[in-house]
From TrEMBL:
Keyword DNA-binding: yes
Keyword annotations: DNA-binding, Transcription, Transcription regulation
PROSITE patterns: HTH_TETR_2
Species annotation: Streptomyces flavofungini
Name of protein: TetR/AcrR family transcriptional regulator
Organism classification: Bacteria, Bacillati, Actinomycetota, Actinomycetes, Kitasatosporales
InterPro entries reported for this sequence: Homeodomain-like_sf, HTH-type_TetR-like_transc_reg, HTH_TetR, Tet_transcr_reg_TetR-rel_C_sf, TetR_SbtR-like_C
Superkingdom assignment: Bacteria
DNA-binding region(s) from the entry: 45-64
Transmembrane helix found in the keyword field: no
Length: 212
């Protein structure tokens, strides 16, 4: 192929800064989206995000055609990070300590993220990225529970299906009225974890199917 002409070279150079600017704007929007949804929940608008990012709303709409698209991108990142916490917890030798550490870390993130709690509660945002991230979290939770059970540190009858209801119990504490996120949830997580730990003489758990 021949060499570029002098006219082509400046044109190519101009495209690169434009692409960099577009990518920087996308990162600014995602960062602003995370902060706005965390503070205001899923009722926040694209206008709110644009204002927080210091960008025109048209720039936001060019990157994300609606709030659903932005929320999917934001919370896919959030859930991917929670999946990474679950994966990293598996490096802990003590299976029960690994499970407890993951629950504390994941719920600690939710405590300061209103949008994430609403997503956990209502599942109002969907998408392939979110579905994949949820499956990964579930898979890692199954591994954490299985290892704690195999080491004999998890009480009989507890399985991976109990993790989501436990998170919902803590979410109920987080939903208590208050101007700022309450740290009271940590108290109840300790109580729940003590109930999950294998101890001599524990009352057998009722079969979950018996309630149906």
């Amino acid at each position: 192929m021949g060499r570029r002409t002098q006219a082509e070279e400046p044109a190519a150079a101009a495209v690169r800064p434009l692409r960099r600017d577009a990518e920087l704007n996308r990162h600014r929007i995602l960062r602003a989206g995370r902060e706005v949804f965390a503070a205001r929940g899923l009722q926040a608008t694209l206008n709110d995000v644009a204002h927080h990012a210091g960008l025109g709303v048209g720039t936001v709409y060019r990157k994300f055609p609606d709030k659903q698209a932005l929320a999917e991108a934001v919370f896919t990142e959030e859930l991917d990070e929670i999946a990474a916490l679950a994966r990293e917890a598996q490096s802990e030798d003590d299976g029960f300590a690994a499970l407890a550490a993951f629950l504390e870390s994941a719920l600690g993130r939710a405590a300061h993220n209103r949008g994430l709690r609403e997503l956990m509660r209502h599942g109002a945002v969907e998408g392939t990225g979110l579905t994949r991230a949820r499956r990964e979290i579930t898979s890692h939770c199954e591994a954490l529970v299985a290892r704690a059970r195999s080491q004999g540190t998890l009480r009989d009858g507890v399985d991976e299906a109990d993790i989501a209801p436990i998170a919902a119990m803590i979410d109920a504490v987080l939903a208590l009225p208050g101007e700022h996120p309450s740290e009271l949830w940590r108290r109840y997580l300790v109580i729940i974890l003590d109930g999950l730990r294998a101890q001599p003489g524990q009352t057998p758990l009722p079969d979950p199917d018996s309630a149906n």
